[in-house]
Amino acid sequence: MELRQLRYFLAVADNGSLSKASAVLGIAQPALSRAVRQLEQALHTQLFYRHGRGIRLTEKGVQFHATVDRLIRSL
To answer: What is the DSSP code string of 12-30?
Structure first.
């Protein structure tokens, strides 16, 4: 797990969409999607529900968001 992945995770969660988050971050959407998938694999859990209208946090994703948000803000 890398700090970059955590920032990407927060951007996706806060924007509710991979495409919106990729525009905000200034990176390609496939690269962002890959980074989020790798983070989920590293954590052995699904952080997002993916659907046709975007993406939303799972229950574990909500918990992880709270932890990561506090961590990133303290840095």
So the answer is: HHHHTSHHHHHHHHTS-HH
